[in-house]
Amino acid sequence: MTAPVFLADSLAGAAVGARLALEGPEGRHAVSVRRLRVGEPVVLTDGAGTGAFGAVAAVEGKDRLLVEVAEVRHEAPPSPRITVVQALPKGDRGELAVETMTETGVDAIVPWAAARCVTQWKGERGLKALGKWRATAREAGKQSRRLLFPEVMDAMTTRQVARLLAESDFAAVLHEEGAEPLATAPLPAEGSVVLVVGPEGGVSPEELAAFAEAGARPYRLGPTVLRTSTAGTAAAALLLGRTGRWG
């Protein structure tokens, strides 16, 4: 049986033989939805790289259980770190992009309010949308059995994205008219890789110029044009394979 993964508030006391409590919404899901029972395997993670592997030792009420730890694992931050700057898609395609990029292995996701985005995050609506992206990353992190969940950063403007690109070790903008394929781009063995995925309407000439000034070159992904909600996942898979993180 594959052990389900739950997000714990803290794993500060995680050690072999220790009993850790899982409570609150995660405990309720484990007890009342998954109906875990004593003896069943379970994994607790803090989402920051630590995982406690063990079995249910006791079920207490409808929203709390104790896990007896058999093993503690620590996952170091991978290198190179891969960040995807994702232009805001329409509808729920943003959550789809976050979900699949998380499952693939992206380390950070940056919502970007590009000029040609139909969707704009403003005020309470923007905060709610950002919360959905972060919740999606957490759930996808658990589903894909990651111990280190991706960081979903605050939404950035084009100027802020340009600064992020300038600070990276390799910066690229996915663009159908890119002269070079991403599959042959010179990638660093360590450090940071930042990839920009534009909106359905494409990256504007002004944005391309700003990113070029920051050191980001345009690259094409393949012979077909992908939706903004799937391009980041496809590109991330390519980068993970080329950098040896998938191997």
TrEMBL record:
GO terms for cellular component: cytoplasm. Its main location: cytoplasm. Specifically methylates the N3 position of the uracil ring of uridine 1498 (m3U1498) in 16S rRNA. Acts on the fully assembled 30S ribosomal subunit. Belongs to the RNA methyltransferase RsmE family. The gene is sdrD. It comes from the Bacteria. This is Ribosomal RNA small subunit methyltransferase E. Residues 22-69 form the Ribosomal RNA small subunit methyltransferase E PUA-like domain. It is found in: Cytoplasm. One of its GO terms (biological process) is rRNA base methylation. Pfam families: Methyltrans_RNA, PUA_4. NCBIfam families: PRK11713.2-3 (NF008693), RsmE family RNA methyltransferase (TIGR00046). It is an enzyme of class 2 (transferase). Its EC number is 2.1.1.193. The keyword Cytoplasm applies. It comes from Streptomyces bingchenggensis (strain BCW-1). Keywords: Cytoplasm, Methyltransferase, rRNA processing, S-adenosyl-L-methionine, Transferase. It catalyses: uridine(1498) in 16S rRNA + S-adenosyl-L-methionine = N(3)-methyluridine(1498) in 16S rRNA + S-adenosyl-L-homocysteine + H(+). SUPFAM superfamilies: alpha/beta knot, PUA domain-like. Residues 78-239 form the Ribosomal RNA small subunit methyltransferase E methyltransferase domain.
